[in-house]
Design a protein that fits this description.
With 512 residues, the chain is of the alpha/beta class. The protein has 15 helices and 25 strands. Strands 2-1-10-9-11-12-13-14-15 form a 9-stranded mixed beta sheet. Strands 4-3-5-6 form a 4-stranded parallel beta sheet, sandwiched between helices. A 4-stranded antiparallel beta sheet has the order 16-17-19-20, with no helix packed on it. The structure holds methylmalonyl-coenzyme A (MCA) and adenosine monophosphate.
Length: 512
Amino acid sequence: MNHNLYLQLSSHFDRQPDKVLIDTPDGDRYRYRDVLSLSQRMAHVLHDRGVEPGDRVVVQVDKSPQAIMLYLACLQVGGVYLPLNTAYTDAEIDYFLGDAEPRLYVCRPQAEESARRLAAACGVEAVETLGVDGDGSLMALVDLASEDERVADVGPDALASILYTSGTTGRSKGAMLTHQNLAANSQALATTWQFSAEDHLLHALPIFHTHGLFVACNIVFTVGASMTFLPKLDAEQLLDLMPRATVLMGVPTFYTRLLASPRLDRETTANMRLFVSGSAPLLAETHREFSERTGHAILERYGMTETNMNTSNPYDGQRRPGTVGFALPGSEVRITDRESGDTLLPGETGAVEVRGPNVFKGYWRMPEKTASEFRDDGFFITGDLGVIDADGYLSIVGRDKDLVISGGYNVYPKEVEQWIDELPGVVESAIVGVAHPDLGEGVTAAVVLKPDASLDEEAVLAALSDKIARYKQPKRVFFVDSLPRNVMGKVQKNVLRERYADLYQPSGASSD
Ligand code: MCA
Ligand code: AMP
C-alpha cells in the first residue's frame, strides 16, 4: 500500500474539478482542477530538477496559492517539504541549508542573489524562485511542463516534511514528520471538528508552520472544502469575509485583535460555525469576552511542531476556557512526575507526555536528542506542564522548557542570549517573555555590561538585526548590574518576569 499523504490530500481533486478550492482577496480563484494541474506540472519540474524520494526541498517564499501547490508537488514526488519562516535572516538560512542539505532551494525572487550565494556555500546546486504573485523561475518552468501523474510510493514512516524548531541549546532542531503523522492527524482533526466539503476556511496564518500548513490546509484538502488565502492577519478584512465563511483558525492574537473591532458581534459571525485557537495559551478572559460578543465559544486545542495536534476541546460539549480539552482520537496524553516519571492522578500538576500516530519520528540527524525526549514506552515528553481535571480536561499551566511564545511564534531565549553575549562589552544576558496585551508574551532582555562598556538599547538591537528574525529580537533591552540567581547559580527568570510584569501593559511603568 502506498502511504503517500498526497493520495489523501488529492482524493477530492477528480470528484469536484470545478469547485473553487482557493481564492484570494485580489479575486484570484483556483478550482480543484487548476490546483491539480498546476501541482502535477510542478511535480514534473521537481523531477527534472532531480528531486528524488527523501530529498529535502527547502522553501522560503511568501504566502501564495502556488506555494501550497509546491507543497503538494513535493509530497507527490516523495520529497521532504521544508518550509522556512520568511522572517529568517541569511545567518539563520545558512544554518538550515547546511543542516538539511536540500536538493532544491526555492526562495523569493527578491532574495535570489543572496540565496544563490548561501546555496553555493552549502553545496546546494538547484535554486529556483517563487514570488507572491506566482512569478519567478519556478512558475516559468511550470508553464512549459506537462502534468506528471506519478505518485511516489512511500511507506508510512517515510518523511513528508521537516520543520525546524529552535532548541534549548540555541541550535535549531529539524522535527521529522512522516506521511502517516500528517495523514492521521488531519483525519483526526477533520472528524473531531466535524469538517465537511461545505466548509469555507478563512486562512490568515503563515504557511510555514504546523498550524497554517498542516492543521489548516491538510484538513481542507482531506475533506474537499475551500479556503480564502489572506496574506496576513487583518481583523477588519476577516470581518468583511465572515459572512461567506464557516471556520477561522488563529493564534490568540487573532482573537484579541478581532475583539478590538466594534464590528465583531453576533450578526457578523452568524454564518461561522467554528473558531479555533492554538499555538499559545488563550486567556480565559478572551474566551469569555468572545462568547459574550458573538455567541461562539472559541475551541482551543493544543499541539506542537513535533507532535502535530494532541488535544482539543470538544466540538459538541463544553469548551472550557483555560483548558485544551481531551486527547484526539488515536492519541494519548498523560501527566507524569517530573523527577520519577510516574503517572500522576487527575488534579496533580506534572509533565505533559503524549503518544500516538501524530508524534514525530525524531530530530533530523540528532538521535541522542531524540532518545532523550522519549520515554521507553514511546511517550514524548513535551516540555509543557499540565494538569488533567476530574472530567478529563487538560490545562497547560506552564513550561518546563525555557521558551517565549510571541504572537504564536516560538523564541528560544538561549539563541537570542548567545548573540547578545557575543557583543563586545557584554558580560551576560537573560531573555524572558513578559505579558504582552497583543502578542501574549513580549521578548525582553536584561543585559549585564562590563564596567567600561558603552552599549545602549539601540546598539544591542542594531547588532541583532541581521542575525535573528525580527520577531525574536527583544521589544525592550534593560541594563542591570547583575542577573538574579538562586543558590545553585541558576538565573531566576521568574524574578525578571515579575520585575518587568507591567512593562507592556497600557499603563505600564518603564522599568529603566
Ligand atoms: C510580527 N512581528 C512580531 C510578530 N509578528 N513580533 C513579535 N512576535 C510576533 N509574532 C513584528 C514584525 O517583525 C514587525 O516588526 C511588526 O511586528 C509588524 O509586523 P506584521 O507582519 O505587520 O505583524 P502582524 O501582521 O501584526 O503579525 C502578528 C501575528 C503574526 C498575526 C501575531 O505574528 C502571526 O500570524 N503569528 C502566527 C504564528 C503562527 O502561525 N504560529 C503557529 C506555529 P517591525 O515593524 O518592528 O519591523 S505552529 C505551533 O505553534 C504549534 C504546532 C501549534 O500548536 O499550532
Ligand atoms: P511549537 O514548537 O511552535 O510547535 O510550539 C509548541 C508549544 O506551543 C507547545 O509546547 C506549548 O508550549 C505551546 N502551545 C501550543 N498550543 C497551546 C495552547 N493551546 N495552550 C498553551 N500552549 C500552547
